[in-house]
Amino acid sequence: MCLAIPARVIELRDGGNALVDLGGIRKEISLALVPQAKLDDYVIVHVGYALGLIDPQEALRTLEMFEELDRLQPEAL
Amino acid sequence: MKYIDEYRDGELAQRIAERIRNEVQPERQYRFMEFCGGHTHAISRYGVSDLLPANVRMIHGPGCPVCVLPIGRIDLAVKLALEDGAILCSYGDTLRVPASGGLSLLRAKAQGADIRMIYSPSDALKIAEANPEREVVFLAIGFETTTPPTALVIRDAAARGLKNFSVLCCHVLTPAAIAHILAAPEQDAAAVELDGFVGPAHVSIIIGSEPYAEFARQYRKPVVIAGFEPLDVMQAILMLVRQVNEGRAEVENEFVRAVGRNGNSAALTLMDEIFELRESFEWRGLGEVPFSALRIRAEFAAFDAEKRFDLHYRAVADNKACECGPILRGQKKPTDCRLFGSVCTPENPMGSCMVSNEGACAAHYAYGRYKDIEVVAV
Amino acid sequence: MTGRSPVKRGYVRPLNFRDGVVDMGHGAGGRASAQLIEELFVAAFDNPWLRQGNDGAAFSLQLKPGERMVMATDAHVVSPLFFPGGDIGSLSVHGTLNDVAMGGARPLYLSASFIIEEGFALADLKRIVESMGRASRDAGVPIITGDTKVVERGSGDGVFISTTGIGIIPNGVDTGGHRARPGDAILVSGSIGEHGVAIMSKREGLEFETEILSDSAALHGLVAQMLAVAPGLRVLRDPTRGGLATTLNEIAGQSGVGMLLDEAAILVQPQVEAACELLGLDPLYIANEGKLIAICAEEDAQPLLDCMRRNPLGEHAVRIGTVLEDAHGFVQMQTRFGGRRVVDWLSGEQLPRIC
Question: pTM for the whole thing?
Fold first, then answer.
């Protein structure tokens, strides 16, 4: 469930809001749930709220995992 | 679009598919449930099943909050709008769900109810502020992904002292539902044995990967949390195949770029501040599931539509021929249901699986039913 | 009304287009109506028919052997009335011109009727009507007759416009949804989804910032060029409400055929794609107002594409698929990802979703 999209923070605004950019579309959303988000961070946005940050390092690792360039054991509990 | 397009690469898909083909044990069946409706949608829309070997079967789980929303809850929303004259704010997903008396929120609107489609809970708050003389109710559905935003608006409404705003809370919880499905084989001989789960992507951003560890331990089933894009889903399936082959039952996280062990603590704290567990909640297709849903705490009773309007929930049964229950539990396929494609279609959904476009039946109808009929190509 | 306008200059104050509003009197058929028609509609559409001031427009027509006529009508209820790239006025002109053109015809004349809500700002009405006048002049097709009614406040969405157009189909041209044959090529004149996204970006509650403009445009010039190259063109249709997917399903149903599309070939502008991601919508189902689908015999495909690409309205024309033999009429699509899926009819209205 839960349509959520990764978008880049391009402007911090009053009241804990931010302007984010996804592929050229810009929308104002709330950072209330991810107050630590900074300019240029990528956040995952759902119903007008950021839910979490995207870790660029991990994102790269994931792509490498798809290509099996990086044969690291995936994180297990 | 960054962090989206790279995860839809067709060539990488072929390579992962080849790895899956090479690693499945030919004499074994692999039955994995993708809990989340978003994953069902991705699998259908991108034709992921076409890329899997025949002995890997994806079973669509009940992780679609619209699908599992009981008719009785929508009836409450319709009543608030038609009889109590409230402005009823709802996400687009819920507007067409058929409820009792041939009504849906959309049909109630045609009869004069003031139903407003919103994209964000903050829109409902804005509507309340713009209409101080009217009661405004927000029909809040969704799993843990959607719950923190609802919590925020309730807290905001309290802080602003709004006197005309309330929430009809229908938020449900993922781990409880997974536990219910895993426990089923012990109670129901017809329940299908699952070999593993593809765990939800965005719910896990909020709750973290830790809550799933219990399922891996108690029921000895592997769980791989997967991102939403089709490559994420395929990689997760590969990781599940590996766990099954190696006899492991662990929680693995494919969605490491967004999900950590402990989730979003700010969101979890906020949810705990505003909501508490309901002892039991009816899930359409699954029946009563214990400790699987949230209600608004007494301190915020002024914003709880159930208290404010003294609502009494009445359960309404689905059509007797509807097979949504077994389908949601993975025991039957859409094509096993007598009503599928004849009486029950996306235009006229009879049960929960057809109602939302990520329900198993809706997804199959939209993307897969052509496979049931032979097509001769030129 | 007889030949001379009954509005006597000097006795009547000119309409206040800056702050005035439409009232019930403007639709009553008396002096106020006549004034509105003369000062706004006739002024903006200006042509010999309207200047005559009759209820209908008379013209003569000489059809050559084999020529036929086509008539098309469209009602426009778009909200918001003004959107990036157009307004309800230009849309109503383009829409009907396109319907006539999809019949293979050269449009001749248009009519326009207005249902206006009491209290509607005259400034907005003027803006809309002048936009229609411009669209009509640019297209070379005059609006020769029309009507105006005013309804009580609350009965309308500001203004509803209905336009009707007629045109002449050249000899030997026979386009229709039933004409697609297995083996035919499916072409689209450009990228999809812009009009719908432009509208949505201005919808209340959904606002997002984008540079996407509606693609609203009159396509009859492009169609005439295409028919010159391939008079045997089988199907022409513009994918408006319901988008490319709905239109292709309609044609498949009418012709009793199936289709196989190539997702990678279908052009979607990046911002349209992003807006659809944001709202959970599929560009295949989003309205276009300046694009056309053409289905032709295989041998006509490349000549048609070359021809379309020479016209600014077709510069990104592309082949997106092939017609198949399939009694069930399924429109299938090879996804970019590698699998295959069906592109089904739209179920109800496509609403932004959270799930």
Answer: 0.89
